[in-house]
Amino acid sequence: MPSPASAASPVAVSEDPPAGVGALLRHRPFLFFFATRSLSRFASQIASVAIGWQVYALTGSAFYLGLAGLTQFLPTALLVFVAGHAADRYDRKRVMQLCQIAEGTTAMCLAVASYEGWLTVPMIFAALAIFGTCGAFESPASAALLSGVAPEGRLQQATAVSTAGAQVATITGPALGGIFYAISPGLPYATMAAFWLVAAGLTGAIWIARAIEAKEPPTLNALFDGVRFVRSNPTILGTISLDLFAVLLGGATALLPIYARDILHTGPWGLGVLRGAPAVGALLMTFVLARYTIRRRVGMRMFQAVIAFGLATIVFALSHWLWLSLLALAAMGAADTVSVVIRFSLVQLATPDEMRGRVGAVNFLFINASNQLGDFESGMVAALLGAMPAALIGGVGTVLIALLWMKLFPSLRHVERLE
């Protein structure tokens, strides 16, 4: 089977860009995209801490904290196929921009209500529903737009740099949210509003040399074309399903509170360090991939990355030393980043431009489902067998899934090159 690069060419400008991350960031469409996506991710990470603290401060109930997560997830599950079709039918940057304006306006309302002292729990949950709905539309449009703003032949590098921005936001965003909330409960919401509204302005400045306009009418049948396309393409089906089952089994991070207190015998500070370790490993790996792209045997490299993720999970499961657990978690983050960069590039390059929104929506749904269900699976197994057996089973299962998928999807294993 030919590599995805021969199946579809990314929508990009026609110039032949010079090598190097600096040259990539001087490419204005990608620079604006990188900035707007990073700001949007910063805002959402700040929200994850500020809203959680405020909900618990107002209710004192762990149930409401869980309900807050469900409120954001439900719009994704319900609207993901509509959102994917919107990303294919309408101007993707306008879809992103409208979502960011709606998010920024909602955050500003939360800021005003918090400063004035009339913010209520129903208002927060209404805002969460808006954030979840906007995220459901913004993510497929953003994923599909990356192929258009990356210079031709540089999608893998652009994905790595974009992922680096997201990892920086993941590491520092929650800390900013906590610091700002300590200063004033309304300050994180005002910051979120500023970030989203600035992001909306930058999104509007993105210019693509030759965009492809979708002509397909908005029929019910067209909504699920992404699912049918994924099922009919072994490379994409194998890539997305590998991530689904690997994350589903390898959700050891959900057990970090148990490991911190009962196995590693550390306190809240240790839990915070453990939570940050995968993101640090991921960030370091994005710098490596941005400088040294994977040029050969990319399909095999993805399987090797998933196997490395599983082996690092096994080391974490058996570790009784904090330093070794931190190294294992950092290795998990680094291996996952290699898999993410290859997977995203494979899916984008194997998908025609007019289908990228709907296929991206399927991928987005799989990622969200695997994260949510992975945490649930780890918690249930830990409740039955204990935390260490649960993490160990997850690591072994991840390795076995990768080996099985190598047999089930030989075309994916033999993909030689990206771009």
Features of the shown structure:
mainly alpha; single chain; 419 residues; disordered N terminus; globular
List the helices and strands and how they pair.
Blueprint: H1 4-7, H2 21-25, H3 28-59, H4 62-89, H5 92-116, H6 121-149, H7 155-183, H8 187-204, H9 220-223, H10 225-232, H11 234-249, H12 256-263, H13 268-291, H14 298-318, H15 322-349, H16 356-385, H17 387-408, H18 410-413
Protein described:
The protein has helices at residues 4-7, 21-25, 28-59, 62-89, 92-116, 121-149, 155-183, 187-204, 220-223, 225-232, 234-249, 256-263, 268-291, 298-318, 322-349, 356-385, 387-408, 410-413. The chain contains 18 helices and no strands.
Proportion of β residues?
under 5%
Figure out the total of helices.
Answer: 18
Order of helices and strands: HHHHHHHHHHHHHHHHHH
Helix content: over 70%
The count of β-strands is 0
Main sheet record: none
Give the overall silhouette: globular
Summing up helix and strand content along with how strands pair, one would put the structural category as: mainly alpha
From the alpha-carbon coordinates, what is the Rg to the nearest angstrom?
21 Å
User: Distance between the terminal alpha carbons, to the nearest Å?
Assistant: 16 Å
Low-pLDDT stretches are 1-18
Mean pLDDT over all positions: 79
| Assembly annotation | single chain
